[in-house]
Amino acid sequence: MGLFDRISRVVRSNVNDMVSKAEDPEKILEQVIIDMQEDLLQLRQAVAKAIASQKKTEQQYNQNQSTANTWHQRAQLALQKGDENLAREALQRKKGYAETAAMLKQQLDQQLGQVDSLRRNLIALEGKISEAKTKKNMLKARVQAAKANEQLQNVMGGINVGGSMAAFELMEEKVLELEARSQASMELGGSDLESKFAALEAGSDVDDDLAALKAQMLGGSNPAQGQLPGSVSASGASTNVGTPVDAELEALRAELDSF
After folding, report:
1. Which residues contact 207 (CB under 8 A, 6 or more apart)?
2. Which of 11-15, 118-122, 173-177 is predicted with the least confidence, judged by mean pLDDT?
3. Contacting residues for 128 by C-beta, under 8 A, at least 6 apart
4. Which of 35, 46, 86, 105 has the maximum number of C-beta atoms within 10 A of its C-beta?
């Protein structure tokens, strides 16, 4: 199992454990990002160590390969000088360095593969962290919206909507009752006023009838004899005033003449 697989397993186990114990989603999301960043730091350190080890192996390989080439040149020189024993010994040295270089080359190839894999995993983890941060912001916004909605529902649940509406209906009934009473008062006041004017109009008709009757009685008779007791003569002096009724009638007549 590679280093990145082990890190991923640790991350998943930590996340699952925190999620099962957490009550605040915002806090758990923040903690997940922190843990992923710590894992990223460890992975970067691992990549750095792997690269350093690969560079060291590469240097050792180059040195052994260079030394093997040097002993090969020396073997050629010994043969040119006619010293086969020295040439054989030089070739023996070359063989040792060449074998070491071959082993280092295999190790170097493996390390190059590991470093390449670690780099890809590092890039992938950086991408996942960036994606996780974006999702964290989205989830935090959803959490805040859910909390706000829950708070609103709790507030709405605490409001007695039925009682409030019943109070409004009761007030509406009282307003309607007051309006009805006001309308009735206006109608009653109008009726009383109408009755007063009707009485006045009726009184005017009686006065007209009385004047017509007097004119009829005065017509064709002695003016002095045709006047009602207590009437006023042409000179304006009051004639014989008899009974109190006649006096009251004369007073009413004088009051009417003043209008």
Report:
1. 256
2. 11-15
3. 36
4. 46
- Per DSSP, helices labelled H in 159-243 are 161-218, 223-226
Element (H, E) at 236: none
228 within domain boundaries: no
pLDDT band at 181 (very low <50, low <70, confident <90, very high): confident
191 within some domain? no
Which structural domain, as residue segments, surrounds residue 148? Answer: 3-162
Q: Confidence band (pLDDT; 50, 70, 90) for 204?
A: low
The residue type found at 20 is: S
Contact assessment for residue 238 and residue 232, using Cβ atoms and an 8 Å cutoff:
yes
Collapsing DSSP to helix, strand or coil, 77 comes out as helix
The verdict on residue 139 lying in a domain is: yes
The number of helices, as runs of H, and strands, as runs of E, in the chain is 6, 0
Give me the residue label for tokens 């004017």.
197
Phi, psi of 238, deg, nearest 5 = -75, 130
Q: What pairs with residue 232 in β-bridges?
A: 238
Domain count, the chain: 1
Q: Is residue 188 part of a domain?
A: no
Contact by Cβ (8 Å): 79, 94:
no
Instruction: Enter the tokens of residue 221.
Output: 């008779």
Counting beta carbons within 10 angstroms of the beta carbon of residue 43, is it exposed (0 to 12), middle (13 to 18) or buried (19 or more)?
A: buried
Range 37-45 average pLDDT: 90
Instruction: Give the least confident one: 9-13, 39-43, 112-116.
Output: 9-13
